[in-house]
Design goal:
Helix content is about 35%, strand content about 15%. By secondary structure, the chain is of the alpha+beta class.
Length: about 325
């Protein structure tokens, strides 16, 4: 049965040890009474300090949990008093595995069972080949030009609303800052016809890439592209690029990430939905549009050409 020695007893025993060297063994045995020899050895082995044994720790990752295995040296060479080497073997210890205690219960559902006989029935759409395809009210056919298709989807009415919001944003910006740059003094209200030219220049820039925007209007023989200067001046294009707007900032909806382009997005979706009725055989395809700015729903897909961007789903007919 274990007992606790008081401080006075310890000091008295230390004085006795100093006076009599043979009494230290008895004091040590009394001090550690109640400790199991096997537990003491096991605890010393865990920290790698038993008789100079070297413990090697191997750490590896598996399922976000860290496991450590302890392997002890199996042989120790000692030299006797007669300078003869003898080999002493120690029993091999089984490796210890630390099992992670935190288990993510969301990773599996052991009690999950599929249920049969549910009343759910998928909706079966009846397709009619006579109604599928481009609708007649859009007056588009095989003889229509690319511009005809573009104007049917991106309508003058839609660009008229964009022109209104752009002009309104310019006025709001001037009123709030009360400062006009030298280029702002040449501003005049834009129209839907001018925005068609603005969009066409943007699309042409993707085909004829240059390092800077000003290079598209450069007169250098190595960079000269006369189509840009004939369509719109450089200063006017940069002014529209600065003030182009699709919404009224005063009506901003909190936590609506698509508020800035929601008006244009909804109009184009409705135009596509009205212009084309899909056929029965459809394929859903996905595309990642490059975007490297700050966006909460931006995705990273390593296997795509543009690894960062916004994912879109398309109907392929």
């Amino acid at each position: 049965m274990s007992h606790i020695m008081s401080d006075e007893c310890i000091l008295a025993s230390l004085d006795e040890i100093i006076a009599n060297e043979e009494s230290d063994d008895e004091f040590i045995s009394d001090l550690f009474v109640g400790f199991d020899d096997e537990e003491e050895i096991a605890s010393n082995q865990d920290i790698g300090s038993v008789q100079g044994d070297v413990h090697k720790y191997t750490v590896f990752q598996q399922n976000d949990a860290e496991y450590k295995t302890i392997s002890d040296t199996e042989e120790e060479i000692v030299q006797s008093d007669n300078e003869e080497e003898t080999e002493v073997s120690f029993p091999t210890h089984q490796p210890k595995v630390l099992v992670p205690q935190k288990i993510n219960k969301d990773m599996f559902t052991p009690n999950f069972k599929w249920k049969s006989g549910t009343p759910f029935q998928p909706k079966v759409h009846q397709f009619c080949s006579a109604k599928s395809g481009i609708q007649k009210e859009f007056e588009l056919n095989s003889n229509s030009t690319i511009l005809d298709f573009f104007e049917a989807l991106v309508t003058p009415f839609l660009l008229g609303k964009v022109a209104y919001e752009t002009n309104e944003y310019f006025r709001q910006n001037i009123e709030s800052n009360n400062v006009m740059s030298s280029r702002d003094t040449s501003w005049y209200d834009t129209t839907s016809e001018e925005l068609y030219l603005f969009i066409s220049i943007q699309m042409l820039m993707a085909r004829n890439k240059k390092l800077e925007i000003a290079d598209y209007w450069s007169t250098d023989p190595l960079l000269y592209s006369p189509i840009f200067g004939k369509t719109m001046s450089r200063n006017r294009f940069q002014l529209l690029l600065r003030y182009i707007h699709f919404c009224n900032n005063n009506n901003q909806i909190k936590n609506d990430r698509l508020f800035k382009i929601d008006m244009v997005l909804q109009d184009i979706k409705n135009n596509f939905r009205s212009a084309m009725v899909p056929f029965q055989n459809l394929v859903i395809d996905e595309s990642l549009v490059l975007w490297k700015g700050r966006l909460s729903f931006k995705q990273f897909i390593r296997t795509k050409r543009h690894r960062f961007g916004v994912k879109f789903l398309f109907y392929v007919m």
